Amino acid sequence: MDILIDSVDKYTSDGTIDIKDKFGGRFERVKIFYSSPERYTRCKYVDLISAKAHPEHESGSPDQKHNPSAWTDSVKVGDFFPYADNEHSYWAGYFSSRQSLKKMERVSSSFLHSARQIEALAKLFPSKISAKTETVSDSWSGSPLFSLDDAVGVAQHHDVATCKQHVAYDYAKSLAMGLQDASLFVSGVFRKLLLVPGLSALQNLRWCPLLNETICDVSQTASGNENQILYIVAYNALGTPRSEAIAIPIDAKDHPFTVEVLDETVTWKAVDSAILPNRNYLQNPVAAPNSIMFTATIPPVGLNIYRIRRSQSKNSLRLTPSVGRKLQQGPTSFDAQSDRVKSNREIKRGDVFSNGIMKVEFDESTGMIKRIKGENSSIEVTQEYGVYNAAAHGGDGFQNAGAYIMRPQPDDQAFHPLPVGNASVALYQSNVVTEVHATIGWVHQITRLVKGKDYIEIEYTVGPIPIEDGIGKEVVSRYTTSIQNTDGKFFTDSNGREFVPRRRNDLGVLGYESGLTLTEPVAQNYFPVNTAIFLEDEKSSFGVLVDRSQAGSSLAEGSLELLIQRRLLYDDARGVGEPLNETTDGITPDPPYGNTERLGEGVIIKGVHRLVIGGGKSGAPIVRSQMDHMFSQPLVFVGSEESAVQFSRSSLSLINHNSLPRNVMIITFNALAGDGSFLIRLGHQYGENEDNIYSNPARVDLQDLFTWSVISSVVEMNLSANQRLDEWEARRYRWSKETQPKNSLEGTVCLLQPLEIRTFVVTI
Length: 764
Description:
Blueprint: H1 2-13, H2 19-23, H3 37-52, E1 84-86, E2 89-90, H4 99-124, H5 146-155, H6 165-194, E3 206-207, H7 217-223, E4 229-236, E5 242-250, E6 257-262, E7 268-270, E8 273-277, E9 290-298, E10 302-310, H8 321-329, E11 332-335, E12 340-343, E13 352-354, E14 359-362, E15 369-373, E16 378-389, E17 416-417, E18 424-429, E19 433-440, E20 443-450, E21 456-462, E22 473-481, E23 489-493, E24 499-503, E25 527-529, E26 532-536, E27 540-546, E28 550-553, E29 559-567, E30 605-615, H9 619-631, E31 635-641, E32 651-653, E33 664-671, E34 677-684, E35 698-701, E36 713-717, H10 725-731, E37 749-752, E38 757-763
Antiparallel strand pairs: 1-2, 3-31, 4-10, 4-31, 5-9, 6-7, 6-10, 8-9, 10-32, 11-12, 13-14, 14-15, 15-16, 16-17, 16-22, 18-19, 19-20, 20-21, 21-30, 22-29, 23-24, 23-26, 25-28, 26-27, 27-30, 28-29, 33-34, 34-38, 35-37, 36-38
């Protein structure tokens, strides 16, 4: 783009191009300028020093690299949010609009992150990949992952949340097609890499896109056939080993199963597992009635293989005797006939449930959390679901809530908790996980304590949101804690990197203290949450991690709330042209072909929050410890066979089981066109002074990422990888002497400073 701009400037200046002649008189004074933040900075710098008439820069050359005094009065400090175009129009709604599509984009992005690594894995093992398994071609668009790459790139634009319904369907269709293409490629690579050469097996190995709805046709079909064995390939894209609970849907009833992992001796070894019921809050008629849950341990940037088969013993999925006795005395018992964990009484006051690290006490009448205790801290929690009634239909000039705008009714800015008088509670406990199910009206919650994990998982199902009263609704999950953030400060992430301090009712966010009023006390305090939001005081910290982008706030001391779903009945006049009212059966065409009528019931959405707690002033490190795990979920492929499958290896790791530092993420591991070149991005995942250990610089030897080969060259690139870093550094504008490049590459070893991302092209 810079080349195009420079060329247009040159050719218009020397008369080669006559703008007036080419495009008409009204374009005579058109000038093209600015294409990127870098070019904008350089151009503004020239304008500024020319205006100030600095004698030392009288030429105004953009090549001048250092003049900090010229910028002193132009530095922006403070927050850039909230954003509004008038006093009643705060653009906080689109942070949470179209929650289902936001989740689909996040899943697609995570899948692409893993699939690119698997594509690189295929390139590193070329002898294992037949000519029929396409890997990397000579053009970017020729990659089998191109359709997913393209769809994810488009879907990350904010208009995914603020488009018409038929456009949203098109986004979803593109993502679904990309996921289908990518999953076919990945399953082919897995079969070639893992099966004994010449063996044609697991032809139905596939990724199940509806696992979150307890739907997987392969596992449901195979589990109902006593001769079928289920095989699961679980892939971990992180640079450190991990253990995660994985749930596989099954249709079988009254049958025992055994879950086994293929160990390093290529023999099967039993792992802890449990069968849990699916209460089908999503009301999907094809959802499986049960799931088998087990803990999968997966190597860094690698995979392990598991299998599920019918067992000859009725004790296959029984709890261990010690746990079983405890359960008989406590809140649950085991059904010996069906080998299932089931609830047999209500939660009693004072019951405390533990996964070995976290201890949780629940409100016995609602099933909501009331107290959490971790290894180093304990906090009181009041958990609620509720709504803000959306502003609408106030006459000419009235600002409605809509896809962009969040606005509670002007005369009713109150949070309305859902009534809990009719709440129902159920408890399920096993040696893998404890689940507390709670239903409050049209919201269902599963609180999940996975064995050995330092977080609590909240799975919520919302909808259909009732609109019979003619009022749109903003649905909120609120956590009120004993933390005393008396200064109104809380923190949200900026695109998963820096944590930005926000302050409740802060009238100085635009850089000046006067002239602003609290015209919208709710919406004015909502901020984007891409990965996490947290509170902290001198004694405790509390954070919530999200599985998709949402709007969040702290409207009272010790409180956090997240906007988890929206259903609105009027347009906000910001260009969408229709209400944000998603329904199960879609919408009729726009005029003149239809009347854009919504069909069916309101949609039901499912989401996940992870709750973490810690000691005083530890909010950032406790959420950072889970952020990468929350984004990069294990990639799970399921296949079946009637007989035992012979595998050539028990597991596989792209980095040969070497673990990277815990504070480093492999952001990119892409195979490039041509032979033996790879694009590598490494990111330091902690900020300065956030943690005594993980905020320190991280040292990584790139050769550890290529244990199967020897690196012949490493070239460091700029972040977008379109030019060499040294060439870019030589001509970039420097804000101050402190911005001189500090890092150098010592052979294949690089040093990552806090929150730094470094990009390399590695050739083997």
